[in-house]
Design goal:
Largest sheet: 2 strands, antiparallel
Distance between the termini: 26 Å
Strand order of the largest sheet: 1-2
Number of strands: 2
Length: 494
C-alpha cells in the first residue's frame, strides 16, 4: 500500500555497511563524544539557543570524530562522502516539505485560517479538557491521513495557539499533539513506517496493526488519563481574558468558518493519496487566495502599499510565503502568536537535518551502526533479552543515525533471524520496531523527526519531551509485555 505520511523519503539504499575491523568501543567513540559535547553545549552554555547553530556544528564535529575512527580502520574518504551524500539525498523530501510547511503557515496566518481555528477553538475547548481533546483530535486526523507530520503542520499549529491563549504550557500542548499524532501514525495503514516495519520483519501489514494495538491502545489510554488529570489540576491564566482575546482576534481579522474549507481541502487531498508536496503547495496557494479575498487590509499592510492592486496582493502574499510576517492586534500575547517566519523560518531546522545526516552517514560508512546493533544482538540470550536488545538498538539508531527509517531498517534486518530462531512470529519484531523506533524519533532534537516537529510547532524538544507521554511510554509498554510474556505470538507451523 502506498504510504502518504509526510515524512522524509524512505532511503532507497538500505544496505547495512559492515566493517569487521571495527570493534564496539571504536564504534561508540563518536557517540560518546557527540553526547558529551551536546550535553555541555546545551546545559552549560547555550541552553534553548543551542539549536540556532552550535548544535549543528557539534554534529559536524561528531562526524569528524567518526571519520578519524574510519580512517584508522581503512575506510576511505570517498566511501564516507558517498554515504553522507546518500543520507542527505534521502532527506530531500523532508527539506522540501519543511519549506512548504513554512510557506503554508505564512498564508494560513494572513488569510485568517489559523486565527479562525484559534477563535472558535477558544470557545469550544476549555482548559479542563483541552489537553485530552488535543490528543483525540490529533489521533483521528493522523489515522485518517497516516501522517504525524501533516497533523502537526495543520491542526497541531492551531492547537498550540489555542493552548498558549488559554495559558497552558507550550510543552504540554506540544506533548499532547505529538502523543495523538504518533498514535494515529502507528495505527494507520497509510503510514510509511507502519508499512516499513512489517516489511523489515517479514510480516503482513494488517496483522502487524492488529498485533500492535495490544501495546498501543493501553499506552494511549494511560496517556489520556494523565492528560485528564493534568487538565483537572491545571492552573491557567488565560480563562479570565478569553473574551478580550476573542475581541482582539475579531477586530484584527475577518473571522469566518468558510476559511476552514482550505485546511479541509488539504486533508481531503492527502486522504485521496495526493502527493504531500502537491497538497501543501495547493494549500499554500489557496491560503494566499483566501488572504486576498478575506483579509485585503492585512495583505495591503504586509506589502507596504496604500491600496489593493495585483502588484500589492502579489507582494503581500509572497512576503508571507517566504519571509517573516506578523499581524498586530490589541493583545500583546496574540501579537507574539500571530507571526510566521515563512520558508525562511524553516532554514534552521533544515540546517540541523543536513548536519545530522552528515553524522549518520559517516557512522554508517565506517560500519559503526552495524557494529552497535551486532553488540546489542549478542546480549539477547533470552526472549526478554531479545526484545530489550531490539528496543535498545532502535533507540541507539535514533540517536546515532538521526533518522527514523534507519532506526527501523537496521534493527529489523539484524534481529529478524534471531526472532525466527526463537520461534517468535514476525509481528513481535515489527511491533517492537514501531514501539521503540517510530515513536521515539521525535524525542531526539537532532533526529529528523525531532527537528521537524520542534521547528513546526515552535517548541524545543526539551520542553515537550516529558509531556510526549505516549512516545516515551511506548518502549516501556512493549518491554512490560515481553517481561511477562503477554500476547507473545509464536510461529505457527504450516
Amino acid at each position: 500500500m502506498q504510504s502518504k505520511d509526510i515524512k522524509p523519503h524512505q532511503p532507497q539504499d538500505d544496505t547495512i555497511i559492515e566493517n569487521k575491523a571495527l570493534n564496539i568501543w571504536e564504534a561508540l567513540i563518536p557517540v560518546f563524544v557527540l553526547v558529551g559535547m551536546l550535553f555541555y553545549n546545551v546545559f552549560f552554555v547555550f541552553g534553548d539557543d543551542a539549536l540556532s547553530g552550535s548544535n549543528q556544528f557539534i554534529l559536524i564535529l561528531g562526524a569528524a570524530v567518526a571519520a578519524v575512527v574510519g580512517f584508522y580502520n581503512n575506510v576511505s574518504y570517498k566511501q564516507m562522502l558517498d554515504e553522507v551524500a546518500e543520507n542527505v539525498k534521502s532527506t530531500s523530501g523532508a527539506i522540501l516539505i519543511l519549506l512548504m510547511v513554512g510557506a503554508l503557515a505564512g498564508t494560513w496566518l494572513i488569510s485568517g485560517i489559523i486565527p479562525s481555528m484559534i477563535y472558535y477553538g477558544l470557545q469550544l475547548l476549555n482548559p479542563t479538557i483541552f489537553l485530552a481533546a488535543s490528543v483525540v483530535i490529533c489521533a483521528i486526523i493522523s489515522i485518517a491521513t497516516g501522517s504525524s507530520w501533516t497533523t502537526s503542520a495543520t491542526v497541531g499549529i492551531a492547537l498550540i495557539g489555542i493552548g498558549e491563549t488559554l495559558g497552558i504550557s507550550l510543552g504540554m500542548t506540544a506533548g499532547a499533539v505529538l502523543s495523538g499524532a504518533y498514535f494515529g501514525d502507528k495505527m494507520s495503514p497509510l503510514s510509511d513506517t507502519t508499512n516499513l516495519a512489517p516489511a523489515m520483519a517479514g510480516g503482513e501489514l494488517f496483522s502487524h496493526i492488529k498485533y500492535m494495538s495490544l501495546t498501543t491502545v493501553p499506552t494511549i489510554v494511560v496517556t489520556l488519563v494523565v492528560f485528564i488529570i493534568i487538565g483537572l489540576n491545571i492552573d491557567t491564566t488565560g480563562i479570565p481574558n478569553i473574551s478580550g482575546k476573542l475581541i482582539a482576534i475579531d477586530n484584527a481579522f475577518n473571522i469566518s468558518p468558510w476559511l476552514f474549507l482550505v485546511p479541509m481541502a488539504v486533508i481531503f487531498m492527502i486522504i485521496k493519496k495526493t502527493p504531500p508536496l502537491i497538497a501543501l503547495l495547493i494549500g499554500t496557494l489557496l491560503g494566499g487566495i483566501a488572504a486576498i479575498i478575506a483579509q485585503p487590509n492585512i495583505v495591503i499592510n504586509i506589502s507596504g502599499a496604500d491600496n489593493l492592486t495585483f502588484q500589492s496582493a502579489y507582494k503581500g502574499v509572497m512576503k508571507a510565503i517566504t519571509v517573516d510576517s506578523a499581524v498586530e492586534t490589541s493583545s500583546k500575547e496574540l501579537n507574539d502568536l500571530f507571526s510566521s517566519g515563512g520558508m525562511s523560518g524553516m532554514l534552521g531546522t533544515i540546517w540541523l537535518i543536513i548536519c545530522a545526516m552528515v553524522f549518520g552517514g559517516v557512522m554508517d560508512a565506517i560500519g559503526a551502526l552495524s557494529r552497535i546493533s551486532q553488540a546489542l544482538l549478542s546480549l539477547a540470550s533470552t526472549t526478554f533479552g531479545l526484545f530489550a536488545s531490539t528496543v535498545a538498538s532502535c533507540l541507539a539508531l535514533n540517536v546515532t543515525a538521526s533518522d527514523q527509517y534507519l532506526a527501523l531498517v537496521v534493527p529489523g534486518k539484524m534481529f529478524k533471524k534471531a526472532f525466527e530462531d526463537k520461534g517468535l512470529a514476525p509481528e513481535n519484531l515489527s511491533r517492537t520496531l514501531e514501539d521503540s523506533g517510530t515513536v521515539t524519533s521525535v524525542l531526539i532534537p537532532w533526529n529528523t523527526c525531532g527537528a521537524y516537529q520542534s521547528g513546526v510547532l515552535g517548541v524545543p524538544v526539551a520542553d515537550y519531551f516529558f509531556f510526549a507521554i505516549f512516545n516515551w511510554l511506548s518502549p516501556f509498554t512493549t518491554l512490560l509485555f515481553a517481561a511477562f510474556r503477554i500476547k507473545i505470538k509464536q510461529i505457527v507451523s504450516k
